TrEMBL record:
Organism whose genome encodes this protein: Mucuna pruriens
InterPro entries xrefs: Peptidase_aspartic_dom_sf
Name assigned to this protein: Uncharacterized protein
Amino acid sequence: MVISVIAAEYKIERVLIDQGSSANILYWTTAKKLGIQNLTKCQGALYGFAGERVPIKGIVELETTFGDRSGVRTIPVLYTMVDTEASYNIIIGRPTLNRLEAVISTHHLCMKFLTGRTVATVWVDAGIARRCYEDSLKVESTSKKLGVNILDFDLYP
């Protein structure tokens, strides 16, 4: 699911809602554009689904606003910052989704959460989601240039 949010007083598109992620990710290229200065250093690395290791540059907490004209909610979100190629600007993971008490419907392409006494609905932007998917295929193909090693075995000396 790809949506837009407001963080650091900027509207940020290409935000992936990832129910499988245990962290909220802010990519370094996005952080530079936002002019983030208050980065807390953090040692360690994140490990992806396939076991790839990405070093953590630091962590930062940003007030992040979810929603639109149907209702908004602003909460502090702790982002883990990494410097790697991605087709998204931010990944929102389970910690924030739980704090929002959000309900995700992939079938209906929306996310719902309480804003006081009303329920806000955030809809997927299908056009941006499609472009993110296409861009992710490009990022993957450029970052994984596998070499071929040919070994010459003489099995019958």
